Automatic annotation (TrEMBL):
Entry-linked SUPFAM superfamilies: ClpP/crotonase
Keyword check for Hydrolase: yes
Name by which UniProt lists this protein: Signal peptide peptidase SppA, 36K type
Biological source species: Oleidesulfovibrio alaskensis (strain ATCC BAA-1058 / DSM 17464 / G20) (Desulfovibrio alaskensis)
Keywords attached to this entry: Hydrolase, Protease, Serine protease
Domain of life: Bacteria
Domain (Peptidase S49): residue spans on this chain: 114-263
One family name in Pfam for this protein: Peptidase_S49
GO biological process: proteolysis
Length: 320
């Protein structure tokens, strides 16, 4: 009955939408700059890094949303085109994501800094773990909220395993392969000890890059053992280990941006697709309902289960 009611509402809106001016199927809108606070010609851009770090679009019935990598890089490009932008505040609220997407974002931020000389502050929100921390270390200064959970500096290989289910329902997967390890990581069988060793070696190799970057960016050479066990930690623990520079709030991040960029005054701005009344830096939505799809039902990842692959991700719900 609920789906029938939704269907009838859609039919009614389709019939009347054009006449009433309701935008049913929002198309892509260009990013625009909106001022949040402050004054002056110089600008500090607030750039959210929120959600799982990947570049997979979130698919709906009528429209798709770009992945996080595309969303962040588009804003970096916009900031790069504006010589008045002197600093960027990354508000990081992410458990991490895929190895490559996390590394791409880190690299894009580093190259943005090199090309423009713009200073970057990372303000960690609820969670900045694993890939979220990986992105944070591209900043010139990292500030964590008092209640931030961060750390989880490590790498994980995840894959679904449906062997038990297949045994219950009497189904087998028959594979013809060109080499002994062609189907390594298959969800339809257990790994052999040799395959497990191969995957472990790959995880170790990918993780060594993560550890090395943290050591270099945070100047923690010789102290890798203090964080390389991949545990999560509080903001205070991260501060004591040297993984963040200070504990504070948004105002502290703005003050740090002023200091790093040598600014006496600046306008704090954000890039959105629509204006919001009474807007604040804590708003991570880029467009209001009127320009977004009227009905949006994500189809690609209804259970939010990650696909097989290597991740810089804190995801305890998938551990066993």
């Amino acid at each position: 009955m609920r789906y029938m009611a939704v269907f009838m509402i859609l039919v009614s809106l389709l019939a009347t939408g054009c006449a009433s001016g309701v935008k049913l199927f929002g198309g892509p809108e260009a990013l625009k700059e909106y001022q949040l606070q402050g004054s002056g010609d110089a600008k500090i851009v607030v750039l959210p890094v929120a959600g799982v770090i990947d570049n997979k679009p979130e698919r709906g019935i009528f429209a798709d949303k770009p992945g996080l990598v595309q969303s962040v890089v588009a804003r970096l490009r916009m900031a790069e085109m504006d010589p008045a932008v002197r600093a960027v505040i990354l508000t990081v609220d992410s458990p991490g994501g895929s190895v490559t997407s996390s590394d791409v974002l880190y690299n894009e931020i580093m190259r943005f800094k090199q090309r423009t000389g713009t200073r970057v502050v990372a303000l960690q929100m609820d969670m900045a773990t694993s890939g979220g921390y990986y992105v944070s270390i591209a900043a010139d200064r990292i500030i964590a909220h008092p209640s931030t959970i961060t750390g989880s500096i490590g790498t994980i290989f995840m894959r679904p395993n449906v062997t038990g289910l297949m045994e219950k329902i009497g189904v087998q997967a028959v594979t013809t392969k060109s080499g002994a390890h062609k189907d390594i990581g298959s969800p339809f069988r257990e790994n052999t000890p040799e395959e497990q060793a191969i995957l472990q070696n790959m995880v170790t190799t990918l993780n060594s890059r993560f550890i090395k970057l943290v050591s270099e960016r945070r100047e923690l050479q010789g102290r890798e053992s203090s964080y390389s066990d991949a545990r999560i930690m509080t903001a205070q623990e991260a501060l004591e280990l040297g993984l963040v520079d200070s504990i504070g709030y948004f105002d502290n991040a703005v003050a740090a941006a002023h200091e790093l960029a040598g600014l006496d005054e600046a306008s704090v701005v954000v890039y959105r697709r629509e204006p919001f009344p009474n807007d604040t830096p804590y708003n991570t939505i880029t467009a209001q309902a009127g320009s977004a799809p009227l009905v949006e039902m994500p189809l690609a990842r209804p259970l939010n289960v990650p696909s097989t692959g290597f991740y810089y991700l804190w995801a305890p719900e998938y551990a066993r």
